[in-house]
Amino acid sequence: MDEERALTDHLGELRKVIIYSLLFITVCFIAFLIFTQKMIPIITREQKLTMLGPLDVIRFYTGIAGSLSLGVSAPFIGLLLWKFIRPALTDVESAKALKFIPAMLLSFVGGLLFGFYVVFPFSYQFLLNLGTTNFEMMITTQSYFSFLLMTTIPMGFLFEVPFVLMFLTAVEILTPEQLAKSRKYAYVVLAIVSAIITPPDFVSQLIVLIPLFILYELGIGLSKIVFQKQQKAIHADRLPQT
After folding, report:
1. 166 plus 98 within the same structural domain
2. H helices within the chain, ranges in order?
3. Final residue of a structural domain among 88, 123, 155
4. What is the rounded CA–CA span in Å between residue 61 and residue 32?
5. Start-to-end C-alpha separation, the chain
């Protein structure tokens, strides 16, 4: 009976997390939808885009509002998830998880900015110049927005790699030695990701790939700092008390 009650309470808490998350996303979506008209010049960079029909207008506006609302809602959802799994964590793991949420948010925003101001404009302009050499280019809002998402959203998640590695070290799932030994495999995975999210030209892939390699090495460095602090704490606890 106690197990059934515990399971019911657990499912009830999960339902609250889902409902609150959906409500927050909905509020953000409505807010961004209202102000989308003012954000369009920033997002489109005043490019001359083409709408093929009235449904394209709806897709474009809802696509912008939906993407921004999901991004803004991420920290709130992360906080709800932390509260949900907190009973299963130790006090140390709970504190560490809460501490890393702001860092991962900032890194996600940094990745979006890198994608928006570096990866996207270079890749877009390169392909545009390549196309106009032999063709008359007509860019639709749908294709423009899809390409924008493809070159920005993944960068936001990839920029979180150092802090994810740091967190996994903090909760003693990974060690710097394991990360260093897995370097060549990680580089292969990052190269594949870079090839997927960038246009099929060598320069664009390098623009993304080199920062990803740097981020992984930064993750190893941060992992070493956390690991060394853990070892010092363990050593201090083992010292005889006077």
Report:
1. yes
2. 2-44, 54-85, 91-114, 120-132, 141-158, 161-170, 176-181, 183-197, 202-238
3. 88
4. 9
5. 50
Q: What is the pLDDT of residues 150-196, one digit of tens each?
A: 888 888 888 888 888 887 787 778 888 888 888 889 889 888 888 87
Do 103 and 23 sit in the same domain of this protein?
no
Q: For the segment 88-113, what is each residue's pLDDT rounded down to a tens digit? A: 666 666 666 667 777 777 888 888 88
- Of 223, 80, 114, nearest in space to 164 by CA: 223
User: Are residues 180 and 220 in contact, defined by beta-carbon separation less than 8 angstroms?
Assistant: yes
The candidate with the shortest Cα–Cα distance to 43, out of 92, 106, 105, 116, is: 116
How far is residue 172's CA from residue 184's CA, in Å, rounded to a whole number?
22
CA 106 to chain centre: 10
Query: Does residue 242 fall inside a structural domain?
Result: no
**Are both 43 and 116 inside the same structural domain?**
no
How many residues does the structure list for the chain? 242
Whether residue 22 is contained in a domain is answered as yes
Per the CB < 8 A criterion, the answer to whether 32 and 87 are in contact is no
Give the residues across from 140 on adjacent strands. 50
The whole domain housing 208 covers 93-237
